[in-house]
Every structure is written in C-alpha cells, then in structure tokens.
Amino acid sequence: MKFPPLFLLGIYLAGTACLAQGQAPSYSQFEPFKGDGYYWYAKPAPEPQKQASTPVPAVPKQEAPKKSEPLSMKWLRENMPVLLEKAVDNPTQENVSNYMYAQRVLLDKSQNFSSKVKDVVATDPFLDENNRVPISQFANTAFQRKSQQDQSEMIKVLASRSGIWLFTDKPERCMACKDYESNVLTGNSGVSGLVKEFGFNYRSIDVSTEQGRNAAKRFGLKVTPTTVLVAPPNKFILLSQGLMAEDVLRERLLIGARMAGILTAQESALTLPYNKGLLQNSDIDLPTENTNPTDVMDTLRKHIKGNAP
Asked: Which of 39, 83, 176, 223 would bridge 99 by S-S if both were Cys, CB 3.0 to 4.6 A apart?
C-alpha cells in the first residue's frame, strides 16, 4: 500500500516533536555566565577599605597659675585694690589698718629701690646721665656754651656748601618782608644777620615778578616771606613759610642740613649735643637667642662695654 508523500512528512514532523518533548534539558557550569559572552570571567568585587580613624590630639594639662608670694610687688599690685575697696566700703579698724600697712610696705620697697638705684648709677659711668649732660649749674653752663659754639661752627660749614633764598613780595602786600630780611638775614646797622654772620650765598626773589611767580609756583609756596635752603646740585629745603625768629631759623638750618645730607654724620653729631652716648640699634643688636631677662641684660652690659663673647 502506498502512502502519499505529504502524509509521510506529517508523520515525521510529529515524531520529532514528541522526541524533543521527552528529552530533559542538560545543565552546564557556564550557564550562569552565558550572557557575558567572551568576557564571562568576572573579578570579585573589591572589599571596601576601612577609613583610618583620625587620632584625637591630647589636650595639654593646664597648670594651675602660680600664686604670688605674699607682699611681693605682684601680690601688692593684685591685692592693694582689693584691700582699698574693702576699707572704703567698710572702714573698720581692721580694714583700714590692713590697707595702710600694705601701702607702707609698698612705699618702703620704693624707697629701698630708689636708694639702690643711686648706688648703681653712681658706680656705673654708662648709667650716670651726669657724664652725658652735666647737671650742676656751673658744668651745665659750660656744656651749653660749648654746644652753641659747635652749632655755630657747623652753620659756617653749611654756609660754605649752600645758600639761602628768600621769597618776598611788594611792601603793600607783605609789610613785614623788608624788616624780616634786614633783621634776620642780611642784617643792618645794629644786627649782623645770618647771611652776613656766616657768609651764606643769598638771593632775594620777588614773587610779584614773572620769574618770582614761576619759582614760587615750582615750590608750591603760598606765603611770604618764605626761606629756602639751597644746595647744589638740586637740593631745596623749605625752612620757613612766614616770619621766624633768628634762633629758631638757626635750628631749622641745621635740621635741614642733616635731613638733606649736606653735613656728614660726624658733623651732624656736633649739632645734637643731647644725643651723645645714646644707644643705637647696633648697640642693642645682641648676639644671643636667649630670652631669659636676666641673661639678656647681662649680655647687653657686656656688649655695650665691648666684652661680649
């Protein structure tokens, strides 16, 4: 018996389906990684790092403040106001007596200190101000005379290196200009004047003229008479705007000369008699890093006397 071809094909397909349904699926060890493709091998996730704990700084122990020694200066400075307030608020015999005894201790300490200061100063020439500026009337008079002579000599030196310009105006605008010029600077029959006495090169400039106005404008001058110290090549020192006494003008001349460097350091020292023996920055530049007050002062004494190690 012959079957049609289509019938045989149907039987084949039905049998194949039954066979597929009867077989159990097989398990593979790569099944969990089938979605990873070529990169199926996965590294284990890194363990989270533990954060290092920040060390807590140790709190330093605060030392208890040292108590002041009874009746020391520190103790008196701290306790005398307390004793005073107590005595004023409640002036009993005991409270007032306590304050007065504390005051007596303070006064006696001060007297003992003052006496010792006199002894120390009298035996140390560097501390004795009498060696720098005489105190007695006779010696101080000689000191003042010598100082004035030195200053006059330095003004003569200054006159050889500089000149004085005086800016004036018409008499109707500056009535005092002519008298100032003749009495203080150029001199007259009764007064020598700074210019004549020391030999300064002198020039009078009238600001009512065009040349005078231009010069006054250059220096920014607003008042007449105005006195200017002039030194080559280009030093102009304003000494005064307005009237000025001769002794004050002498002092201004020396100040201007020092500031402008017209006088040397040695010459300038002669114009400052009260600066003799003063400590300079170089004298107190101590070659030590020790900060102990006693050691610092000991090093200072040796440094000043030239005995520093």
From this structure: 83
Compute φ and ψ for 60, nearest 5 degrees: -65, 145
Strands of the 226-231 sheet, one edge to the other: 201-206, 163-168, 226-231, 235-241
143 plus 241 within the same structural domain? yes
**CA distance to 83, 142, 179, 254, per residue, from 248 (Å):** 53, 21, 17, 10
Same domain as 114, residue 201: no
Average pLDDT of the chain is 82
Do both 151 and 254 map to the same domain?
yes
Q: Which residue has the higher pLDDT, 296 or 261?
A: 261
The residue range of the domain holding 95 is 73-119
Are residues 109 and 146 both part of a single domain? no
- Summarised one tens digit per residue, pLDDT across range 169-181 is 888 888 888 888 8
Q: What is the pTM of this model?
A: 0.62
CB 86 within 8 A of CB 95: yes
Residue 309: pLDDT over 50: no
Q: Does the residue 184 lie in any domain? A: yes
Q: How far apart are CA 70 and CA 81, in angstroms?
A: 15
Q: Of 263, 283, 301, which one is at a domain's C-terminal end?
A: 263
| C-alpha distance across the termini of the chain, in Å | 140
DSSP conformational letter for 21: H
